[in-house]
Every structure is written in C-alpha cells, then in structure tokens.
C-alpha cells in the first residue's frame, strides 16, 4: 500500500518518464513497457521507452513500437542518454536486477531519477525507490493491469493497451497452459477482452508469423540437433553459429524451440544452448518441482522462474555443453524423483 501511495503521489504532477524493459524484450517486457507508456501518456506525462536491445518483428504490431529507442543502436544511443539524464522517473519493467539491461545498466544505475520496479522475477536487486514486485504473478502485464486498476484508472485502459497487456499474459503463461495460469489470470484476461482486446488477432500476430526459414530451422533442429538423455530425464539442443547462419536466423527465431524438448513424455528438464558469437546463451525449462532458475543462477550467471530460466556462458559452445553435461549427475536424483512425482500425478 505504501508503494501505491508513493506512486500515486509521484504521478500527481506531469513527469518525464523513461520506461525500460529487459534486454531482448519478449512480449511481456515490451507489452508492459508499451502498455504503461500509453497509460502514462493519457495522464499527461512525457514518456519514452528505451529498450537495451532490439526485439523480434512479431512484436512490431504493438501500439507505440515506432517510438521505442534501441540503446545498442549507435544512432539512438545519444538520444537515449539525453532522455535518461532528463528523466524524473525511470520505470523498470519485467526485470528486477540491473544486469538484465545490458549496456543500459550503468546509465540507469547512475541516473538521478526516482526508480520504480514493476516485475515478477526472483532475484530482486535493491536499487528502486518504489517497487511493485510479485513473484506469484504470472506476468508483468498481469501485475501492471492490477496496478492501474488499484490506482483507480481501469477506465483508461483502451483496446490498444489491453492488447499489449494480453500479449504478455498469453506468452508468459504459455497460452494459459503453465501452472502460473491462475483464476486471477483468467479474470484479468476476461476484463482485457471487455476493455477491447481482440485476442485471436493478438494470438495470430504473435504465433502465426513464421518465416519459411524459421519453420525449416525448427525441422532441422528437431531432426538433427535434439539429444535425449533418458538417464537424466533431460533433453537438449546445442545450436551453433553456423546453424543460425544457414537458416538466416533472425532474432526470436529460436524462441519456443526448447518447449518442444520439454513436451517429450517423461522429460523433467529441457535446455537449449545457442552460440550467439559474443556469448553462449542458455535457456532452461522444467516440469514440476525441478527448479531451473537455481541451476541457471548457480552455474550460468542467470535466473528466472522455477520452470523457465536462462543464463549465459563465456566459454565456447562445446565447452559450455560439456559443462552442462557434467552437471547432470549432480541433479540426477532430483530429476528422477521429479519424474516419478509427475508420473504419480498423471
Ligand atoms: P528465455 O529462456 O525465454 O530466454 O527466458 C526464460 C526466463 O528466464 C525469463 O523469465 C527470463 O527473464 C529469464 N532469463 C533468461 N535469460 C536470463 C539471464 O541471462 N539472466 C537471468 N537472471 N534471467 C534470465
Ligand atoms: Mn515476464
């Protein structure tokens, strides 16, 4: 309650607001950033969204996308820094630790503005003045909807905002399939529909936007790159930079691939390890109680949620893979136990 009163007070007069999503923003990060931007503009604030890095084309339909500054684009760096220096408020959405915003970390850390967190990830760093942080929320967009409602401005949510928020909730719940899909999630979505969200349009824009190259890449990865370690109830892909080049892979093209590995019957953990040239990126998924965010935090400078997490490695791809494989015996018992528990639940 203290936070909401402080936030209300802060927004009582027009502010210069910068909104920052995490690097490689997904639909929840960008949807909450743009949804919030639309809301604050209606309240007469000056708003600029600055993304640390670019994002995939299937998010370009979101209202306000054209105005987003991309910090890592050399031509947009100066303007971004000017906005940050002039900002009276910086709102961080869908992340809670400043190492999630790439090269924006220091400019945001050093900015004089009042800092606000709106997020649902674990591992919160103590840098913000006002926090709306709830790890029980399925999505930052769910949390943001509730915040706007609690502020008393549900009536300001229009169709464009509702669609941005819906996209975040839809993707972060895996289209309402993950265990984070609560009654509250469905209530929020029902209200977003009432407020004008065209949900089948959003679903089509986000999911049915494949290039032929991407589909062929998925086919190649499934047939040539998927490895099953039955002993460890684990399935993984290791994708080389050459694989990405061969299929003209664009940002976002590898998204969702790891879920195919997790969909295999009897699998407790799935991983995808991708050579992104500058770093090796890892994504983990699990079912049940096996906490991949712990594994990612302990071994790969990462984090996330219990069943969906990620991290990085500065070793070459092959060495990263060997490091991952060497970890499996350490988790064998947990993975096996998790599998038995899942089986008992069926
Ligand atoms: P994805 O595998 O889809 O990239 O990410 C899954 C989840 O893990 C997301 O909630 C994301 O925020 C988190 N995550 C992904 N990569 C990292 C990382 O490098 N560090 C941390 N702390 N979290 C990550
Ligand atoms: Mn999220």
Features:
346 residues, alpha/beta, inorganic pyrophosphatase (n-terminal core), Diaminopimelate Epimerase, Chain A, domain 1, 2 domains, six-stranded parallel sheet, six-stranded mixed sheet, 13 helices, globular, binds guanosine-5'-monophosphate, binds manganese (II) ion
Summed up, the helix count is 13
Strand-residue fraction?
15-25%
Give the CATH H-level superfamily of the largest domain. Answer: inorganic pyrophosphatase (n-terminal core)
CATH hierarchy: architecture of the largest domain: Alpha-Beta Complex
Write the element-wise H/E pattern from the N-terminal end onward.
Answer: HEHEEHEHEEHHHHHEEHHEEHEEH
Shape: globular
What would the CATH topology of the largest domain be? Answer: inorganic pyrophosphatase (n-terminal core)
Give the end-to-end Cα distance, rounded to a whole number of Å.
Answer: 41 Å
Largest sheet: 6 strands, parallel
Task: Give a concise summary.
By secondary structure, the protein is α/β, with parallel strands linked by helices.
Description:
This protein is of the alpha/beta class. It folds into two domains: 4-207, inorganic pyrophosphatase (n-terminal core) (Alpha-Beta Complex); 212-345, Diaminopimelate Epimerase, Chain A, domain 1, CATH 3.10.310.30. The protein has helices at residues 2-10, 27-42, 74-86, 105-110, 140-150, 159-172, 183-194, 199-207, 212-225, 241-246, 257-262, 292-299, 317-345, and strands spanning 16-21, 46-51, 69-70, 89-93, 114-119, 130-133, 226-229, 234-239, 269-275, 280-286, 303-304, 308-313. The strands form two sheets. A six-stranded parallel beta sheet has the order 3-2-1-4-5-6, with helices on both faces. Strands 7-8-9-10-12-11 form a six-stranded mixed beta sheet. β1, α2 (27-42) and β2 form a beta-alpha-beta unit. The longest helix has 29 residues, at 317-345. The mean pLDDT is 96. Guanosine-5'-monophosphate binds at residues 100, 121, 123, 283, 302-305, 308-312.
């Amino acid at each position: 309650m203290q936070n909401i009163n402080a936030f209300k007070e802060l927004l009582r007069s027009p502010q210069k607001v910068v909104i920052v999503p995490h690097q490689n923003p997904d639909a929840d990060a960008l949807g909450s950033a743009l949804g919030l931007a639309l809301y604050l503009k209606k309240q007469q604030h000056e708003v600029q969204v600055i993304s640390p890095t670019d994002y995939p084309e299937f998010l370009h339909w979101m209202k306000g996308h054209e105005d987003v500054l991309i910090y890592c684009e050399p031509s947009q760096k100066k303007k971004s820094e000017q906005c940050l220096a002039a900002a009276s408020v910086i709102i961080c959405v869908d992340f809670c630790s400043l190492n999630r915003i790439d090269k924006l970390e220091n400019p945001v850390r050093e900015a004089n503005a009042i800092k606000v967190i709106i997020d649902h990830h674990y591992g919160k760093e103590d840098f913000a003045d006002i926090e709306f942080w709830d790890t029980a929320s399925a999505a930052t967009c769910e949390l943001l909807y509730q915040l706007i409602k609690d502020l008393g401005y549900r009536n300001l949510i229009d169709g464009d905002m509702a669609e941005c928020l819906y996209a975040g909730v839809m993707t972060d719940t895996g289209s309402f399939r993950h265990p984070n899909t609560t009654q509250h999630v469905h209530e929020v979505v029902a209200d977003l529909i009432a407020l004008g969200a065209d949900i089948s349009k959003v679903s089509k824009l986000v999911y049915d936007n494949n290039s032929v190259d991407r589909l062929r890449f998925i086919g190649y990865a499934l047939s040539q790159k998927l490895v099953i370690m039955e002993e460890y109830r684990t399935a993984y892909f290791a994708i080389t930079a050459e694989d990405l080049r061969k299929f003209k892979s664009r940002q976002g093209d590898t998204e969702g691939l790891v879920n195919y590995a997790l969909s295999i019957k009897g699998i407790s953990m799935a991983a995808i390890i991708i050579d992104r040239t500058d770093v090796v990126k890892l994504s983990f998924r699990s079912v049940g109680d096996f906490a991949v965010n712990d594994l990612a935090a302990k071994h790969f400078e990462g984090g996330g949620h219990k069943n969906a997490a990620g991290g990085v490695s500065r070793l070459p791809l092959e060495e990263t893979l060997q490091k991952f494989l060497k970890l499996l015996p350490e988790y064998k018992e947990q993975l096996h136990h998790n599998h038995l528990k899942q089986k008992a639940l069926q």
